[in-house]
Design goal:
- The protein has helices at residues 9-12, 17-28, 33-36, 58-71, 97-110, 125-136, 162-172, 178-187, 200-210, 226-245, 249-252, 255-268, 273-284, 291-300, 315-320, 323-330, 411-417, 452-456, 516-524, 536-544; strands at residues 41-46, 75-80, 115-120, 140-144, 151-153, 156-158, 376-380, 383-389, 400-409, 428-432, 463-466, 478-480, 500-504, 509-512.
- With 569 residues, it is an alpha/beta fold.
- The chain has an eight-stranded mixed β-sheet with strand order 7-8-12-11-10-9-13-14. Strands 2-1-3-4 form a four-stranded parallel β-sheet, with helices on both faces.
- The radius of gyration is 24 Å and the shape is globular.
- It starts with 8 loop residues before the first helix and ends in a 25-residue tail after the last helix.
- The protein binds FE2/S2 (inorganic) cluster and magnesium ion.
């Protein structure tokens, strides 16, 4: 491509009043003509903020990306975008995934950007940035923020999320005092970076790598390593090349790429949230990925990454064992090796020599964590459009189970009553009003707490069913993403205390043992709850959000293209 063909040339190159203004304002930025004219503009979309501890190093890291862009003859411009983050954002960061996706798309389209570096990693930021880039269809490379260091407490390695849930249960069972609890507070998250278990963050940055949107090996590099700095600079250099030569997301993200991503998520024992995000991303690319694609793959693909919550290790161990390329080496026969990536080589390039360094972390095919994948898609009269369970993280006795329902109307009701309700270890805890519209935003409330009385008896798992999601760092027999959700009148809305519910993971069935005519009667007397929002983004979200089985995108955001390039003059 010649410099005159760069997209940004329309802003800078013409002998027009507008181009004059763009050049004059670049001088105002302190950039001389020879520093940028004729060079590609690389946007650095940064999700840094002081309320996103996972991304706290990204302000510095953006400087490393800029260094790479300058080195390769580009003009770097840092563009802050919404710092969607799990820890502080309420009611749930998921409410804002689609807003960040929209912002990403519009920032890329409305500014003179030829290629972009996307910087994120905390759960929703990865799918959001990628969804926006797909729809804008400008060349991008993703810089994963990297996992934080393993947690540390009295010589034990702690995993973010997973060990928080575990020790919180111990504390509620009366086994952990104030002093120990305060020490865990200081030790569980002790460096920049995203959660270092195989939660949603690690799963989705690995997905970005498998899709071919990062440099090879980038996803697992711990945030604080020098290698992470070098990867950031190298991604900046790559972005300049992408601006000149492509490919665009539409040339990389075909059906094969998404199928490989599904396969990898299962081999990673990855987060249930990946189901929602990958369906949304694929449909932006025009690929009709469905829940059944996950279930089919789950029957073929063994879980090989022995990383918490489904396994024993943490992301640093996974990185030292070889990271995503080593995992892909183990499942190369299940992948499409000849598809393109953003780094100019085919996906399978070099995989043959990426034998894992540690078989206890990335297990051999004949010694998997679990012989079949970690996800099952359930259907039945309680979830006509599907539900998801990560059965590898559940107690096996619950995978075929019938028990009486104990129903909670939303999370606040759950918190109020969970320690008072009449339950046995066989009861089925049901949470409704926690879906995409009703939650709102489908919060991570799906790992319902075990009632304190049962915890004290040593019970650590029960069958739980909801239209919520759960954190990728959670575990237990939690049936999630029940669709349609109760808020729109899905059968979950009709369950009553004491109704028997049967889960049969092997048969992929979830059944409410109530006769059809009784359910019809209940349905006729059901009244829809009032809207959660009357104005603003919440109302837009509520009016347009798709159900979990469709990826929870906004109905008018599906696909890419269709939006005109802006007039510059
Ligand atoms: Fe950011 Fe877990 S809180 S990845
Ligand atoms: Mg999470």
């Amino acid at each position: 491509m010649r410099a005159e063909e760069l997209r940004s040339h329309r802003w800078y190159g013409a002998d027009s009043l507008r181009s004059f203004s763009h050049r004059a304002r670049t001088r105002q930025l302190g950039i001389a003509a020879q520093e940028h004219l004729g060079k590609p503009v690389v946007g650095i979309l940064n999700t840094w903020s002081q309320l996103n501890p996972c991304h706290m190093h990204l302000r510095e890291r953006a400087e490393d990306v800029r260094r790479g862009v300058w080195q390769a003859g580009g003009y770097p411009v840092e563009l802050p975008v919404m710092a969607v983050g799990e820890t502080f954002q309420k009611p749930t960061a998921m409410l804002y995934r689609n807003l960040l996706a929209m912002e990403t798309e519009e920032v890329l389209r409305s500014y003179p950007v030829d290629a972009a570096v996307l910087m994120g990693g905390c759960d929703k930021t990865t799918p959001a940035l990628v969804m926006g880039a797909i729809s804008a269809d400008l060349p991008v490379v993703f810089v994963p923020c990297g996992p934080m260091l393993p947690g540390d407490w009295r010589g034990q390695r702690l995993g973010s999320g997973s060990d928080m849930w575990k020790y919180w249960a111990e504390r509620r069972a009366g086994k952990l005092g104030d002093e120990q609890w305060a020490e865990i507070e200081e030790g569980i998250a002790r460096s920049p970076g995203h959660c270092m278990t195989m939660g949603t963050a690690s799963t989705m940055t690995s997905v970005a790598e498998v899709l071919g949107l990062t440099l090879p090996g980038a996803a697992s590099i711990p945030a604080v390593l020098s290698a992470h700095t070098r990867m950031a600079a190298a991604s900046g250099r790559l972005a300049v090349d992408l601006a000149w030569h492509g490919p665009r997301p539409s040339q990389v993200l075909d059906e094969r790429a998404y199928r490989d991503a599904v396969t990898a998520v299962l081999a990673l024992g990855g987060s249930t949230n990946a189901v929602i995000h990958l369906i949304a991303m694929a449909r932006r690319s025009g690929v009709h990925l469905t829940l059944d694609d996950f279930d089919d793959a789950s029957r073929r693909v063994p879980v090989l990454a022995d990383v918490r919550p489904g396994g024993a290790h943490l992301m640093e161990d996974f990185h030292r064992a070889g990271g995503v390329p080593a995992l892909l080496h183990r499942i190369a026969d299940l992948l499409h090796l000849d598809r393109p990536t953003v780094y100019g080589r085919v996906h399978g390039h070099g995989l043959a020599t990426r034998e894992p360094y540690d078989d206890t972390v990335i297990r051999r095919r004949d010694d998997p964590v679990s012989p079949e994948g970690g996800l099952a898609v359930l259907r039945g009269n309680l979830a006509p459009d599907g539900a998801v369970i990560k059965h590898v993280a559940a107690e096996p006795r619950l995978l075929r189970h019938t028990g009486p329902a104990v129903v909670f109307e939303g999370h606040q009701d759950l918190l109020r009553r969970i320690d008072e309700v009449d339950v046995t270890p066989d009861s089925v805890l049901v949470l409704r009003g926690a879906g995409p519209k009703g939650g709102p935003g489908m919060p991570e409330h799906g790992m319902l707490p075990i009632p304190e009385r049962l915890l004290k008896q040593g019970v650590r798992d029960m069958l739980r069913i909801s239209d919520a999601r759960m954190s990728g760092t959670s575990y237990g027999a939690c049936v999630l993403h029940v669709a349609p959700e109760s808020h729109v009148g899905g059968p979950l809305a009709l369950v009553r205390d004491g109704d028997l519910i049967t889960l049969d993971v092997e048969a992929r069935r979830l059944t409410l043992e109530v006769a059809g005519d009784e359910l019809d009667r209940r349905r006729r007397s059901w009244t829809p709850p009032p809207p959660r929002y009357t104005r603003g983004y919440g109302a837009l979200h509520e009016a347009h959000i798709l159900q979990a089985d469709e990826g929870c995108d906004l109905d008018f955001m599906r696909g890419s293209g269709g939006a005109p390039e802006p007039d510059v003059d």
